[in-house]
Amino acid sequence: MSFIPGIGLVRGMGLTLRRFFQPKATIRWPEEKADVAPKFRGRLQLLYDEFGTLKCETCFQCAQACPIECIDMGGMDTKGRFHVHWGPPETYGERREESALRRSGRPVADPAYARFETLDPAAVDEILEAHDYDPRDLLAILEETQAAYGYLPVAALKHISRVTGAWYATIYGAATSYRHLRFEPPAIASAAPAGEGQREQEAGYRSALDAALGYGSERPG
Amino acid sequence: MSTFLATPSDWPLVLTGRAGAIAADPTDLDKAVAAGAFDALRVVVRDLGATGTIATIAASGLCGRGGAGIQTGESWRATASHDTDQRYVVANAYDADPGVHVSAALLGADPWTVIEGLAIAAFATGATEAILALRADDMALVTMLEGAVLAAEEAGFLGDDVLGSGHRVTVTVRPVQGAYMLGEETVLLRALEGRRGQPEQQPPYPTERGLWEKPTVIDNVQTLAAVPWIIREGADRFAAIGGTTAEPRGSGPDLGTVLVQLRGPAGAGIAEVPLGTPLRALVDLAGGVGSRPLKALLVGGPTGGILPADLLDTPYAVEELREAGAQIGSGSVVIADDRACVVDLARLLTRFAADQACGKTIPCRIGLRRLAEIGDRIAEGRPRPTDPALIGDLAHDIVASALCDHERFAVLPLTSGMRYFRSEIDDHLLRSACPAGVCTPIAMAAGAATPGPR
User: Could you tell me if B305 and B333 are in contact, meaning their C-beta atoms sit under 8 angstroms apart?
Assistant: First the structure.
């Protein structure tokens, strides 16, 4: 290819002129919408369904997937089974405690958050020792912790997470998926044992099926 | 302890054959050994070896009873073929269906055949760790099984040196509880790992990446209980049991026997039946239909199908039931007479399946709920014109995007109801009437329509 003097300059100016007459990249949102990839998720947001309940299932899959553990949850879970304790209210409580210490030099006792803070971890430590601090025995550890305290205190879960090195979201995610584990002490002393949740549903199914069939309510088998 | 129903004498008893001989005390190892327990393990260790055992099981055509219908010999071979430092064998004894107790009944009547099957599977695949996972409801059964495993270890059938072969097999009894979905194999594996109980995408199958990411054989207890019988009596004799005329002898997933939980107006119980037995024979085993005419059969538990009376000659077998719109599933067969309303039954089953779903995939979590709502709308006499078409479309989409078998089969009650009982559903849809008199549509409650004959 022969060398023509000034060809680079002409090419460069050509590109400039082309760009000059091309449409601008500025998007006049919201009249215009950006053309983004189908898997683009943008801002994380909790959505509500048409009945006004949260669509979030508190399955903790997002929290488990988040590499820097920046996702957490708080409030009553969407099936009305338990309180998800870990989240904004508690974080807020901790921050308030810190700022009170900084300002006045003494902590402010707050009965609403007392439950999160005081726990004698001796029982958890004993259970963890018996399981060799192995997070692979997590379900057994959780069941024994519940047997020791009557429920799964959040502080105990945090303690397990800190000692075994398993992520808090993984522990909480596993614990919330089984109906025989609970996160609050029973409100009344005569409450049913923790394992009853699933068994109640199964008994309900059996009796509903019998009723639909027109049978008596005796158990099969 | 559940007893098994008496079946005709020419029906072979593969799984429960020894239960009668040791019925006095199922936990007595000496009596069980006298009745033939652990004979097959001895044959496996002394004569067959690992590859010979897998070849025998493959030749018998034994298939997994968990629903997938995969050849057990193939999955054992796949597990044994992976180069790894550890393999696992898991026995799934979790009866997820609330109305079914077949695994617990089998373990209670003859724990030795399952333990022997576990030991053979572990020996054949080169696994040293075997896990028996069952419901935590019956802690007496768990304690009994732990005692049985200890006794077998002391007698040298399990432990560090199985029958002098130098092979180590440790059996652990693991009670699990708290979720319906634990019956699904990948969910059970996650639960044994102490993780959230949700199914995984397959492949990779558990035979490649199962428990702790290691190759894992996971079999139903009924599958494992058939293994010692096959080794003892020979693969050919097993391949001669069951089967249907549709497929050549010795092939297909319908060989051997299964335990069925029967329930009808005249009786209930668990029976061991050869696959391919007509549904009519199962109805007879359950004590017949009673005084009222048979209307439908619920085959397969909460995620099973509703079959009409004119399909009573359908063989109880994987392929035939699938074509008819049902499944073996949990092994439950329930007789419904004319007191039952199909719409009411279908919406009840769909509601239970939706409530128990783990919520991992959106079509299952939301689609099943919408299906149950459509069922409610039809039963309450306020259907939308699009509802019948919507059931079909939604069911198709749920099945097409299914992650596990729960999702794949949970649409069956409504789809099979639509297929076989369209006239009864049309009565609900068009005339706001329930022929069985079970549902109380809003129009009927207000006196606008007359109830059907009861």
Answer: no
The class level of CATH for B342-445 reads: mainly alpha
CB within 8 Å of B362: residues ≥ 6 apart? none
What span, in angstroms and rounded, lies between the C-alpha atoms of B344 and B438? Answer: 7
Q: Which residues, numbered 253 to 312 in chain B, qualify as contacts with chain A under a Cβ-Cβ cut-off of 8 Å?
A: 261, 263, 265, 268-270, 302
Residue B336: its H or E element: strand B332-337
Q: Which fold has domain B29-239?
A: Rossmann fold (3.40.50)
Query: In the CATH hierarchy, which fold is given to the domain comprising B257-337?
Result: Ubiquitin-like (UB roll) (3.10.20)
pLDDT digits (tens, 9 = 90+) for B130-185: 999 988 888 888 889 998 898 888 888 888 887 778 788 889 898 888 888 888 88
Gyration radius of chain A over CA positions: 29
Return the pLDDT at B344. Answer: 87
Query: Which has the closest alpha carbon to B223: B383, B371, B60?
Result: B60
In Å, how far is B443's CA from the nearest CA of chain A?
21
Q: What share of chain B is helix, strand, coil (3-state, %, to 5)?
A: 45, 15, 40
Residues 6+ apart with CB under 8 A from A76: A82, A83, A84
Answering whether pTM is above 0.80, one says no
ipTM over 0.90? The verdict is no
Q: B352 at the A interface (CB within 8 A)? A: yes
Do A178 and A171 form a contact (C-beta atoms < 8 A)? Answer: no
